[in-house]
Specification:
This protein is α/β, with parallel strands linked by helices. It contains 11 helices and 26 strands. The protein has a 5-stranded parallel β-sheet. A 5-stranded parallel β-sheet has the order 9-16-10-11-12. A hairpin with a 4-residue loop joins strand 4 and strand 5. Helix 1 runs parallel beside helix 8. The radius of gyration is 23 Å and the shape is globular.
Length: 415
Amino acid sequence: MKQYVIIGNGVAAAACIEGIRSTDLDGEITVVSSENHPVYCRPLISYYLEGKTDRNRMLYRKESFYSDNSCNVLYGKTAQKVDDVNKTVLLDDESLLSYTELCIAAGSAPFVPPISGLETVSDYYSFMTLDDAEALKENITADSKVLIVGAGLIGLKCAEGIHESVGSITICDLSDRILSSILDDESAALVQTHLENNKIRFMLSDTVEQFDGKTAIMKSGEKISFDILVLAIGVRPNIGLVRNINGKTNKGIIVDARMQTSIASIYAAGDCTEGMDITLGNNRVLAILPNAYYQGFCAGVNMAGGTSNFTKAIPMNSIGFFGLHLMTAGTKYESGQGGTVFEERSEDHIKKIFCRDGIMTGFILVGNTDRAGIYTSMIREQTPIDTVNFELLKKSPTSTAYSQYIRRKMFGGVV
């Protein structure tokens, strides 16, 4: 009987359990969970702060998930070291777990930069986990002046989650635009205006050079007083367990299409990994929930002796702020980079579709994201644009842009 060990307890870990059980109903599964919570949807923590959801509705799987799949979960435990020769995992309580197959789904950790004077700040917060949200919830008041360092997804969702519960929110970022990793200048400006209309203040092209207690001294020389500090500058994949045993790592743990690392019997999945982005043609970290699930399930099947490959990873984000929805996917090649761009805009809506070498490589949608899954499918499947009515598809994401033969294959029926 195989002994499976999964390090981590997020979406990738849950998918790994399901992948294993799709192939092996008898093997022993042990999950090492640093958090004291069953698997939940991390993107919902801002809505939890707003009171729009609760802890029960945040669960990614029902409460009986682990017992239904005959899993042993070690809550509040952290893996310290992997011994790939003797196939053991050392935990922080000095206990050892033996494994036949191991999956590292350890996620990522907040990046805390070495800002001068940070040690003088009595309390500062991250915004990645349910525990982070709980800590913020306990310490903010209606008069709190909040400074958020970082205008990416984490920082902006934190601002949305607490905006009704605090006195003011200022967000600073060294970049000259918000959401700089997924939006261009024009679409970022539209989203920023919407956030500003909801009383979020931005200081862009500016960041903290030094802290002096509850005062931030900015690069521009301006001084910002605050009661609550949130560091949302970014995250770093947790790669140490593989790097420390000389496994291949870069920014993330390097995996192949089977989610196999460079070390026998060790797989990896989720935000800690680095794999092929088909829209870029290169490896990169793709820390998004859908990819985490596909990777985890693929790893589980292969760990259990089955055959599975995940070869359609793409970057993708679907989010909303104060009722304004946006969705991005793929790689955004500009016209000067050998690609073409279709653009459509109005006062509260932007659509940009990026194409190169005869396929759709990416898109940005702000304001109207209806049926964007068709665009995502075009990118993921690398559908040649000359096989569809692309002029119709650019204007409206509709299945009628596909041939009758392809529609039958997509939606069922005789082909």
